[in-house]
């Protein structure tokens, strides 16, 4: 059982006890006073029997009325003040007939807390104390026989003590009310918390599904980029070498060179395909740093295509995180592949710039150029899959890809990514 449930059960138990005391105690005290009073003739004490019985019946009816009011409206029921005034008058009348009814008048303390509000409670407590004090000195008859000096003193003491006890009782009641209020607020907070947890569980499940779908899509895009950057480019290079070899069948030296290039490209493509399947970094990066890797790619491309390609490195060349270096390497490979296929360039310049928080790769050629805003055959204005793949790579690293070109003016591609050092966070 939770602490909240235990507290709620404890409060309910106290409320049941309080209701029993408020409802049952008046009848018990009235019955006890009546029995003791009617037994007084056994000890030769005169009793006004009809008056005692008559007031007892009236008091009983009065209490029954209070009990009905309390059951229907609780402490906020109307006419509670009127009931209390009548209770005090009946109590004073009964005590004037027999001091033993002082036990019944004691109920005035309890009902003062129930029927009255604010300072009127202390007025009711004082009235109850005054009536009880008359029963302490032997009733109204004793006061008339010379008890006027004792009765005021007992009244003062009784009122002082009853006010003190009543004050502490009010403090306890206020503390209980505050605890009840806190319990209600705690219950509301728990309900809201449970609703929030249920909502969060649903959102978590939804996020898991979305994360899985995003992971699948990201892996598909990665495989597509790697296939394009390795197998597709390799096969395109092999095809170009074989076509060139076909045109040089009468020149054994040139034929051998083209065939050697084709076999070399085939081996490299096969190696990169295997590394792509296992999601590891390219072989050229595994064996050298990024500037050397891009330099090797440029030199090999230049030998195969017989176009000058020069790499310039600026800044403090340092190890970057693997995906940063792979993105720049693949950008260089794709840019050179595009130059070989489309540019008809005579020279290509690559610049790798290391800055404090950025790394930039610029690839410029003096080829025929193109209109970057023109719509392609695939319906895109962003170029073919190669340019889109480059853009996706750098954007996944919160980088950017800029393309500048014009017909007859060559092409410049600039990839900028954050300079995340090796071992750095996301």
Describe what you observe in this structure:
With 426 residues, this protein is an alpha+beta fold. The protein has helices at 3-38, 49-73, 80-97, 102-105, 107-115, 120-136, 140-147, 150-247, 252-277, 283-287, 290-305, 322-343, 385-396; strands at residues 308-314, 347-354, 358-365, 400-405, 411-418. It has a five-stranded mixed beta sheet. The longest helix has 98 residues, at 150-247. It is rod-shaped. The two termini are 45 Å apart.
Percent range for β-strand residues: 5-15%
Structural class designation: alpha+beta
Which regions are unreliable across 5 or more consecutive residues at pLDDT < 50? 379-383
Termini gap: 45 Å
Number of strands: 5
> Helical segment tally?
13
Q: C-alpha Rg, in Å?
A: 50 Å
The ordered H/E elements are: HHHHHHHHHHHEHEEHEE
Helix content: 55-70%
User: What is the molecular shape?
Assistant: rod-shaped
Mean pLDDT: 80
Largest β sheet strand count, sense and barrel closure? 5 strands, mixed
């Amino acid at each position: 059982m939770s602490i909240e449930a235990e507290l709620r059960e404890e409060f309910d138990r106290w409320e049941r006890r309080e209701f029993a005391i408020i409802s049952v105690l008046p009848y018990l005290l009235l019955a006890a006073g009546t029995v003791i009073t009617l037994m007084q003739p056994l000890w030769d004490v005169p009793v006004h029997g009809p008056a005692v019985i008559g007031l007892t019946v009236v008091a009983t009816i009065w209490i029954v009325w209070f009990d009905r009011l309390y059951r229907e409206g609780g402490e906020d029921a109307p006419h509670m003040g009127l009931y209390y005034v009548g209770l005090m008058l009946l109590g004073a009348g009964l005590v004037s007939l027999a001091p033993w009814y002082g036990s019944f008048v004691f109920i005035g303390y309890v009902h003062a807390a129930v029927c009255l509000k604010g300072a009127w409670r202390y007025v009711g407590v004082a009235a109850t104390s005054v009536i009880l004090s008359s029963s302490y000195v032997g009733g109204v008859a004793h006061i008339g026989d010379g008890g006027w000096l004792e009765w005021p003193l007992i009244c003062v003491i009784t009122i002082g003590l009853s006010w003190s006890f009543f004050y502490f009782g009010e403090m306890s009641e206020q503390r209980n009310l505050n605890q009840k209020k806190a319990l209600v607020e705690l219950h509301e907070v728990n309900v809201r918390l449970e609703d929030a947890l249920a909502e969060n569980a649903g959102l978590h499940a939804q996020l898991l599904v979305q994360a899985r779908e995003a992971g699948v899509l990201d892996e598909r895009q990665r495989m597509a980029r790697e296939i394009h950057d390795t197998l597709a480019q390799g096969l395109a290079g092999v095809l170009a070498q074989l076509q060139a070899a076909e045109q040089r069948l009468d020149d054994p030296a040139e034929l051998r060179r083209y065939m050697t290039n084709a076999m070399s490209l085939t081996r490299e493509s096969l190696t990169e395909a295997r590394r792509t399947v296992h999601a590891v970094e390219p072989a050229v990066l595994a064996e050298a740093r990024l500037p050397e890797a891009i330099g090797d790619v440029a030199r090999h491309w230049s030998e195969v295509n017989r176009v000058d390609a020069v790499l310039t490195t600026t800044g403090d060349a340092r190890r970057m995180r693997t995906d940063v270096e792979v993105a720049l390497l693949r950008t260089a490979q794709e840019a050179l592949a595009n130059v070989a296929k489309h540019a008809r360039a005579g020279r290509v310049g690559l610049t790798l710039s290391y800055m404090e928080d950025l790394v930039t790769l610029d690839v410029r050629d003096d080829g025929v150029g193109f209109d970057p805003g023109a719509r392609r055959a695939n319906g895109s204005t962003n170029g073919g899959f190669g340019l889109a793949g480059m853009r996706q790579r750098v954007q996944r690293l919160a980088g950017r890809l800029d393309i500048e070109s014009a017909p007859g003016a060559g092409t410049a591609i600039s990839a900028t990514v954050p300079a995340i050092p090796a071992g750095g966070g996301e």
